């Protein structure tokens, strides 16, 4: 949405209608972008054979690809406010396409870190943030279900994983990356479905909040012009409503700052950092997302060290993708029944993810690895479908854009180091030892996130609303 484009005003979210076209777009985004990200596990082995790098070095490519979707979220938030969700999404699609096309010319790992890591990562941040924010504007009662349907596109990686292996065998990895660039270009026309919408109630609340936080205006001088800073006369003897009476202006510095436009305040809005719920949710999101990408990027390489064929190992990702799709749909439907609070589902799924990773050292054969992949996908699919609904419950639509941007940024900083750290463990030990260390690393991260989440929400459970939690934490 360019600056001159008007958004349609509604009294409340539609919970349907054109919103399902938004869901369709987000479904394509998840299917293509997350699908291409997950297939990096197959490229991981190919790049290792082609360029001869270590697991830690190649892991940085996937780490940049996955983490920048979170780290660059504040950039996506700013772009959404300035040029609109539609234009932001189209820009992201072009960045992703350009990155994959340039990657086909790669001559080394450093080149791929920029072309396959940086550019698609920035593009993904723009597309995911734009789709998430506008979906929360279109849906309220059905937000969990609509988010589950949209994120179920991630599960269609069960088609892309074997297809990627076939394409690499047929066209080699440069040709496959060119095809991926062409596929991602389809997200440009898909982004045009993001019709802007505004909710009157949210706009009214946001306007009141902005007016309450804005500083008092400086009285005009002669001829209706602002007083010159050099000619300010301050009277401290006569108190007024806000402080000293102002004849010309408060003082030189205050006059200058009070007349500046609000652009910088809007560009760097740190209001989420004042919300205790922000720290609770971000701490949980940080560790859970860190552990989510590690098995995705290292599962095929780990299976290969156990003597499993690469083609067979690709079916691990395929089965996990199908399972994750079904569980996201089921999780969204269950959440919309309102049997219990959304955050209670969320923390339960995180606990089960941690337990699954505690059992990861036992997966030393293909059937056991398949079992691990399925259960890991079950609980990951469930909690991923609940992330946006839980965040929307805490913040509301008026501040969701900035809240999501900051939370994703801090989570991305940690996600950046996940795959390289896990890859650093792999070359130094024997197969059994490697599997044990890798699994312990995963389970430790998940348990830390889960324990932190539970500890914070014990406080939340004693309150009837998020506002009550804020009051408890501030006392």
TrEMBL record:
Keyword NAD: no
Keyword line: Membrane, Transmembrane, Transmembrane helix
Subcellular location: Membrane
InterPro entries: MFS, MFS_trans_sf, Proton-linked_MCT
Residue segments, region Disordered: 204-244
Main subcellular localisation: membrane
Molecular function per GO: monocarboxylic acid transmembrane transporter activity
Signal peptide: none
Protein topology in the membrane: Multi-pass membrane protein
Source domain of life: Eukaryota
Record's keyword annotation contains Protease: no
GO CC, one annotated term: membrane
Entry's transmembrane regions: 21-46, 58-79, 91-112, 118-136, 148-168, 174-194, 277-301, 313-334, 346-363, 369-391, 403-422, 451-473
Protein name: Monocarboxylate transporter 5 isoform X1
Organism of this sequence: Phascolarctos cinereus (Koala)
Protein's gene: SLC16A4
